[in-house]
Design a protein that fits this description.
There is one protein chain. Helix 6 runs parallel beside helix 7 (130-138). This protein has a seven-stranded mixed sheet with strand order 3-4-2-5-1-6-7, with helices on both faces. The protein is built from 13 helices and seven strands. It has a single domain (5-251), classed as P-loop containing nucleotide triphosphate hydrolases (Rossmann fold). The chain is 47% helix and 14% strand. The chain is of the alpha/beta class. The structure holds adenosine-5'-triphosphate and magnesium ion. Adenosine-5'-triphosphate is lined by residues 14-20, 42, 44, 46, 126, 182-183, 213-216, 219-220, 223.
């Protein structure tokens, strides 16, 4: 379906909030009755488990490659509007098998074309390997996620180079739609954090979203319990923050 939006949240650096933002956006979209699919292209499978889908039973991401199954064969419903595809250590085997296949970078794009989800969210590993390349090439929109610290900014630069490399190989790749900063309420207390903010604004002029994801313990706890944020704590300040961030992401699509 041509109007389908496919979003990857990426950074080569781990622990920056890719899975947290993927899970938040997916749950908020489903509560607005937007037909959404979240795929963990990461063998850690964090975002599916945070949405209540553990990866220890049933079909999963690896089976798209190993058994050449279609998306509809491996989805797990979270609610009426949200499906997820979990992952596991088998995802690493699948990536090795995929490496030996022709047209290996475009497998996910081909499989997604046959679906009619309005929005697909791809939660990738902290890596620029084949799984991430598949996600980037399947995406209509790429958001980079970062903390205000030197190592995360280097991860942004690595992903940006990977995107350019794919373009140079004449593969169809979207431009970066936006940069999402996480935990700014903590990092902007330090001089290093402020310096990183200047660097990211200079290097990614106009791309940094106005809304940041703020550090909030409710996010960690809701994820750990596999509950939607609004169900875990209906009074949480993180709800307004995540709503504004989700709205701005949607405005950019
Ligand atoms: N704004 C936040 N407030 C509170 N906790 C957060 C926030 N952002 C992320 N976390 C927590 O930090 C940890 C790392 O976040 P997350 O797993 O989303 O990062 P990631 O980029 O997906 O990591 P990886 O690259 O390993 O997949 C998680 O335990 C998550 O719950
Ligand atoms: Mg993650």
């Amino acid at each position: 379906m041509s109007s389908q939006k496919v979003i990857t949240f990426a950074n080569q650096k781990g622990g920056v909030g890719k899975s947290t933002i993927s899970a938040l956006v997916a749950q908020f979209l489903s509560r607005r009755n937007v037909k959404t699919l979240l795929i963990s292209v990461d063998s850690q499978s964090n975002s599916p488990s945070w949405l209540g889908i553990k990866n220890n039973q049933g079909k999963e991401f690896a089976d798209l490659v190993i058994q050449d199954l279609e998306i509809e064969d491996v989805v797990h419903p979270v609610n009426e509007y949200l499906d997820v595809i979990p992952n596991s250590i088998r995802g690493n085997t699948a990536e090795l098998i995929l490496a030996g296949m022709s047209n290996r970078e475009l497998l996910l794009k081909r499989k997604l074309k046959k679906t009619d989800y309005e929005i697909v969210i791809l939660d990738v590993a902290p890596s620029i390997a084949l799984g991430t390349a598949n996600a980037i090439l399947a995406s209509t929109h790429i958001f980079l996620v970062s903390l205000l610290e030197e190592a995360s900014l280097r991860g942004l630069a690595t992903i940006s180079s990977k995107i350019n490399e794919l373009k140079e190989n004449e593969l169809p790749v979207a431009d970066i739609t936006g940069i999402i900063l996480n935990r700014t309420n903590i990092s902007l207390r330090s001089g290093h954090g402020k310096m990183c903010m200047q660097m990211v604004e200079r290097n990614y002029n106009g791309l940094v979203l106005d809304n940041y994801l703020l550090q909030n313990i409710d996010l960690t706890n809701a994820c750990a319990r596999g509950e939607f944020l609004e169900d875990y704590n209906p009074q949480s300040k993180a709800i307004d923050n995540a709503t504004s961030l989700t709205n701005e992401i949607l405005e950019r699509l």
